[in-house]
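Q: C-alpha coordinates for this one, please.
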Amino acid sequence: MLAANERLGLSTALTGFSMGTDGRHFAAAGIPTIIYGPGDPKLAHIPDEWVGVEEVIQAARAYALTALQVLAAG
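A: Here is the predicted structure, written as C-alpha coordinates:
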Protein backbone atom coordinates (compact mmCIF):
# COMPACT_ATOMS: atom_id res chain seq x y z
CA MET A 1 0.00 0.00 0.00
CA LEU A 2 2.85 2.38 0.79
CA ALA A 3 4.41 1.80 -2.64
CA ALA A 4 1.05 2.24 -4.36
CA ASN A 5 0.39 5.50 -2.52
CA GLU A 6 3.85 6.76 -3.43
CA ARG A 7 3.35 5.84 -7.08
CA LEU A 8 -0.02 7.64 -7.12
CA GLY A 9 1.40 10.69 -5.35
CA LEU A 10 -0.83 10.19 -2.31
CA SER A 11 0.28 11.12 1.17
CA THR A 12 0.78 8.22 3.52
CA ALA A 13 0.71 8.26 7.28
CA LEU A 14 1.09 5.13 9.36
CA THR A 15 -1.01 5.58 12.47
CA GLY A 16 -2.88 3.58 15.01
CA PHE A 17 -6.53 4.09 15.80
CA SER A 18 -9.26 2.63 17.95
CA MET A 19 -11.95 1.03 15.86
CA GLY A 20 -13.35 -2.44 15.64
CA THR A 21 -12.37 -4.54 12.63
CA ASP A 22 -11.93 -8.20 11.80
CA GLY A 23 -8.24 -7.48 11.27
CA ARG A 24 -7.46 -8.63 14.79
CA HIS A 25 -8.41 -12.19 13.86
CA PHE A 26 -5.97 -12.21 10.95
CA ALA A 27 -3.22 -10.62 13.03
CA ALA A 28 -3.78 -13.18 15.80
CA ALA A 29 -3.31 -15.92 13.18
CA GLY A 30 0.05 -14.40 12.21
CA ILE A 31 -1.21 -12.84 8.97
CA PRO A 32 0.22 -9.34 8.42
CA THR A 33 -2.74 -7.00 8.52
CA ILE A 34 -3.38 -3.37 7.64
CA ILE A 35 -6.48 -1.26 7.52
CA TYR A 36 -6.58 1.07 4.54
CA GLY A 37 -9.30 3.12 3.00
CA PRO A 38 -10.48 6.51 1.91
CA GLY A 39 -11.92 9.17 4.16
CA ASP A 40 -11.15 10.87 7.41
CA PRO A 41 -11.20 8.43 10.36
CA LYS A 42 -12.72 11.21 12.49
CA LEU A 43 -15.81 11.06 10.26
CA ALA A 44 -16.16 7.27 10.38
CA HIS A 45 -19.28 5.76 11.90
CA ILE A 46 -21.03 9.02 12.69
CA PRO A 47 -24.54 10.04 11.55
CA ASP A 48 -23.29 12.22 8.68
CA GLU A 49 -20.36 10.04 7.60
CA TRP A 50 -19.18 10.75 4.06
CA VAL A 51 -16.23 10.15 1.74
CA GLY A 52 -15.40 12.18 -1.34
CA VAL A 53 -15.75 10.47 -4.72
CA GLU A 54 -12.17 11.30 -5.70
CA GLU A 55 -10.90 9.70 -2.48
CA VAL A 56 -12.79 6.50 -3.33
CA ILE A 57 -11.32 6.50 -6.85
CA GLN A 58 -7.78 7.02 -5.52
CA ALA A 59 -8.23 4.22 -2.98
CA ALA A 60 -9.47 1.89 -5.74
CA ARG A 61 -6.35 2.69 -7.77
CA ALA A 62 -4.15 1.97 -4.76
CA TYR A 63 -5.93 -1.36 -4.16
CA ALA A 64 -5.45 -2.33 -7.81
CA LEU A 65 -1.75 -1.42 -7.82
CA THR A 66 -1.17 -3.30 -4.59
CA ALA A 67 -2.92 -6.40 -5.96
CA LEU A 68 -0.75 -6.26 -9.08
CA GLN A 69 2.40 -5.96 -6.96
CA VAL A 70 1.42 -8.91 -4.78
CA LEU A 71 0.56 -11.07 -7.80
CA ALA A 72 3.78 -10.11 -9.59
CA ALA A 73 5.80 -11.11 -6.52
CA GLY A 74 4.29 -14.59 -6.70
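A few notes: The CA atoms of residues 58 and 64 lie 10 Å apart. The mean pLDDT is 87.
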